[in-house]
Amino acid sequence: KQEVTQIPAALSVPEGENLVLNCSFTDSAIYNLQWFRQDPGKGLTSLLLIQSSQREQTSGRLNASLDKSSGRSTLYIAASQPGDSATYLCAVGDHGSSNTGKLIFGQGTTLQVKP
Amino acid sequence: KAGVTQTPRYLIKTRGQQVTLSCSPISGHRSVSWYQQTPGQGLQFLFEYFSETQRNKGNFPGRFSGRQFSNSRSEMNVSTLELGDSALYLCASSSRTGGTYEQYFGPGTRLTVT
Lengths: 115, 114
Hints:
The complex is a heterodimer of chains A (115) and B (114). Chain A is mainly β and 115 residues long. Helix content of chain A is 0%, strand content 57%. Chain A has strands at 4-7, 10-14, 19-25, 30-38, 44-51, 56-59, 62-67, 72-77, 86-94, 104-105, 109-114. In chain A, the strands form 2 sheets. In chain A, strands 2, 4, 5, 9, 10 and 11 form a 6-stranded mixed beta sheet that branches. A 5-stranded antiparallel beta sheet of chain A has the order 1-3-8-7-6, with no helix packed on it. Chain A starts with a strand and ends with a strand. In chain A, 37% of the residues are buried. In chain B, 0% of the residues lie in helices and 59% in strands. Chain B has no helices and 11 strands. In chain B, strands 2, 4, 5, 6, 9, 10 and 11 form a 7-stranded mixed beta sheet that branches. Chain B has a 4-stranded antiparallel beta sheet with strand order 1-3-8-7, with no helix packed on it. Classes of the chains: A mainly beta (115), B mainly beta (114).
């Protein structure tokens, strides 16, 4: 059974710092991995999608990497801003569900960026 | 394109009642998935519908059910509500592009059971 873990659960940094959020999964047979952002009481906003054949994806100040063999993904945020404060969720598309839209989520990392 | 919409946004129900939540996917998306989010369990997959057929189901009791219409709009129903059903219910739509599915989520329906 696939399990997704995110460390740390919470993180507080001063504005301008570069930071890394970690995600690990127990079964390396995934077909994609998606990073989301969730603001309090709101839905999820897709940040980056990495297909199983890819090693990384970049969007603006965000860079996500994927290492299937070690069961890990990282989300790198450059030059953090107070507007980046949110919960970041990692989700994997399990290979057993490769032809469906089912995602398995981690518990998230709550980020606070202080001005 | 308009995003995923969910109605209603907030609901308060009493134990034992039933509730129906609605989700309209992004135009052209044929897959709709439902998730339950609670502080204790996080985000958990309920079920997925594709072309009016349920093609994947999570580990939830039979009180949770859903359906999809020919226009891809989906509804989920929870019967005999329990206090533990209080949660944010999120709907996501997706289409297969580049050999994979990317999920787009709606704003959610906040259900409170008293």
